[in-house]
Amino acid sequence: MTTKKISIGPIGLNNRSLAYDKDNNSIWVASSGDNSLTKIDAATNAIIGKYGCETPPIDIVYDPFHKAIWVASGGEPLLVMMDALTGTTIDKFQVSTHSTSMTYDYKNRCVWLASRIRPEITKFNTMSNKVVDEYHIGAVISHDIEYDSFTESVWVTDYRLGSVSKINTNTGKIMAEYLVGDVPWLTLFDEDQKCLYISEKNAITKLDVNTGAHKQVIARNTEPWALAIDSKNNMLWVSNYEVNTVTNLNISDGKRLKNYQTGKCPIAMLYDSVNDALWVANAHDSTVSKIKHNQSPDK
Questions:
Q1: Residue 94 CB burial class (10 angstroms; 0-12, 13-18, ≥19)
Q2: CB-based burial of residue 297 (10 Å sphere; 0-12 exposed, 13-18 middle, 19+ buried)?
Q3: Under 8 Å between Cβ of 104 and 61
Q4: How far apart are CA 161 and CA 78, in angstroms?
Q5: What is the pLDDT of residue 9?
Q6: Which of 2, 17, 146, 212 might form a disulfide with 187, Cβ 3.0–4.6 angstroms?
Q7: How far is CA 104 from CA 26, 69, 113, 148, 178, in A?
Q8: Are strands 287-292 and 277-282 parallel, antiparallel or unpaired?
Q9: 84-110 confidence digits (pLDDT tens)
Q10: Is pLDDT above 60 for 7?
């Protein structure tokens, strides 16, 4: 069986990010090449709607309390709130700098924004719709930011220094900084394992969020990029950006299980436990790939 690919149409240029709306069982895709968001029915794979953005959407997250999609803009320092049911814009908010990534802190009901332009991160309260503060994080120029509910922290990668920083969500202060591997890009918090996975130039690092102890769980010749966790089946999914595949690994020992072909340049992933499927946004061919857990591998 081959990977089921869903075309998101000619408007979906340069797909960048995915979000899952559990209340409406929908997948959202952000495309920065034509300033659009696409909403897909996660059960039927049908395209529900396509919605324009004023500026290129860089990252999106789902807010279950407001049943909204938050959109971080790359074209200007802007944060946009959209109704997840209708796709209409609810409001827009100015932030201090252009964002590169975003994460949702559901305990404090805040959105955190990272910037690759300035060494600071922004905390935005979704209840008051105001910027709480902008925290200077030393020399760290962040590429990715990830919320950790266990230690109530956000983690920020710095690909220049080969490090990740742990930042307190209440004070904005750096709690710890850890050297990891070469060129750390994206991070993913695993609530069950209480660890942080980090994709690097040619490896995946697993970091204990309490102690900072880490070990390399897998190395490869291709460039690992996006990460997704399937806790139900004890799997970590890794996208291989340069060779257009995704690989699932055993969470316990990092053993490679199967490879699946995707579209061109798989840049973002999420695991949809309701439909038991992996969703992959492909950057350079205007498609989204959907892979079921029991699907036969390509190689």
A1: exposed
A2: middle
A3: yes
A4: 28
A5: 53
A6: 146
A7: 18, 11, 9, 10, 23
A8: antiparallel
A9: 999 999 999 999 778 889 999 999 999
A10: no
Report how far Cα 293 is from the mean position of its chain's Cα atoms: 20
The second-level CATH assignment, the architecture, of 7-224+236-242 is: 7 Propeller (2.130)
Amino acid type, 252: S
Q: What is the pTM of this model?
A: 0.93
With beta carbons less than 8 A apart as the criterion, state whether 164 and 148 touch: no
Tokens, residue 285: 């061919």
> Residue 204, CB half-sphere, CA atoms under 13 Å: how many?
29
34-49 tens-digit pLDDT = 999 999 999 999 999 9
Task: Quickly state the pLDDT bin for 2 (edges 50, 70, 90).
Answer: very low
Give residue for tokens 């529900």.
48
Confidence band for 151, pLDDT divided at 50, 70 and 90 = very high
Looking at residue 202, what DSSP letter applies? Answer: S
d(CA 35, CA 30): 8
